[in-house]
Write a structure and sequence with these properties.
Layout (H helix, E strand, L loop, with lengths): L2 E4 L3 H11 L9 E4 L3 H11 L2 E2 L3 H4 L4 E4 L6 H11 L5 E4 L6 H7 L5 E6 L9 E7 L5 H11 L3 E5 L5 H28 L4 H22 L3 H8 L6 H10 L2 H19 L1
Parallel strand pairs: 1-2, 1-4, 2-3, 4-5, 5-6, 7-8
Antiparallel strand pairs: 6-7
Helix pairs in contact: 7-8, 7-11
The structure holds NADP nicotinamide-adenine-dinucleotide phosphate.
Length: 264
């Protein structure tokens, strides 16, 4: 099966890197086309993918991945539609472009899958979701799962939950980076070197996420386990609660959702 990327920016580069490092895919079966050729050449040189110089060439792939900015869609989609052939699957990773919009602009497409990866794809740790058009086969969905597992985890969601997903998986990496940096800054205030503090804080956050995912215990049970009676941790937990920790996070998630709705 051949995979054709249109747009070879940050996100396509991360996905292609994940694919070529995975045994399931062959670099030569990955076709890439970008508006400016330097990015295509760079990926051909780095990963030995098949570089395309025209849209017609990349449209010969079985699976087309639209990885341009959403604002380029109006100009690009009529040209993509012109070259679509039966049984091709179209994947869009563009933020804010619904399946309805894609179906309306790609009348020749039989299967459309909307995918939302996140920035952590760059280190193979994206939290991704997808939603498929009504007639998508299980085979097509399996293909998408296999493809995006090369850059992390993927879950199928009803499209109406993409906004919520974009808050807790798309925007939350920024919140988590802030939390890690704040922990490290607090350590600096207490006398630790910043570089070392960052290393320790990020490792602790990574370990805690692993614990929540693998212990199958409720996060609050884990909190209780760390808080020994009369100990130090309960002081920090109480301080966070007194400072409205939960409602601060609720507000941040709601702010993202509100903005997303206003853009739609
Ligand atoms: N970055 C993220 O964290 C993230 C997360 C989730 C979803 N996404 C989605 O992923 C898509 C790509 O994002 P990105 O961050 O990779 O953007 P990017 O780095 O700006 O890459 C977009 C690429 O598309 C190329 N391009 C634009 N119009 C084209 C056309 N008509 N034909 C061929 N190539 C064209 C651009 O070429 P030039 O170099 O010539 O400009 C550029 O290399 C967006 O739709 C975004 O919403 C991104």
């Amino acid at each position: 099966m051949k995979y054709g990327f249109i747009g070879l920016g940050n996100m396509a580069t991360a996905i292609i890197k994940g694919m070529v490092q995975n045994n399931h895919f062959t670099a030569a079966d990955i076709l890439g086309f970008n508006r400016s050729f330097d990015k295509t050449k760079n990926l051909v040189d780095t990963y030995q993918i098949t570089g395309c110089t025209t849209l017609e060439e990349v449209m010969k792939a079985d699976v087309i991945i639209l990885a341009v900015q959403p604002q380029s869609f109006a100009e690009l989609l009529p040209k993509v539609n012109e070259h679509l052939f039966p049984n091709q699957t179209v994947i869009s990773i563009a933020a804010g472009k619904s399946i309805n919009y894609l179906e309306a602009n790609l009348s020749k497409a039989t299967t459309i899958i909307r995918v939302m990866p996140n920035i952590n794809a760059i280190v193979g740790a994206s939290t991704t979701c997808f939603s498929a058009s009504k007639n998508a086969t299980n085979e097509a969905k399996e293909m998408v799962i296999t493809l995006f597992q090369t850059i992390g985890s993927i879950v199928e969601l009803p499209e109406e939950q993409f906004t919520i997903f974009s808050a807790i998986a798309g925007a939350s990496p920024a919140f988590s980076y802030m939390y890690i940096d704040t922990l490290a800054r607090a350590a600096v205030r207490a006398g630790m070197d910043k570089k070392q503090a960052l290393q320790i804080a990020s490792s602790a956050v990574l370990g805690s996420a692993k614990m929540v995912m693998e212990s199958h215990e409720h996060p609050w049970e884990l909190v209780d386990q760390v808080c020994s009676p009369g100990g130090t941790t309960i002081e920090g937990v109480t301080s966070l609660q007194n400072d409205q920790f939960e409602s601060t996070i609720f507000d941040a998630v709601n702010a993202v959702i509100k903005k997303d709705h206003s853009l739609a």
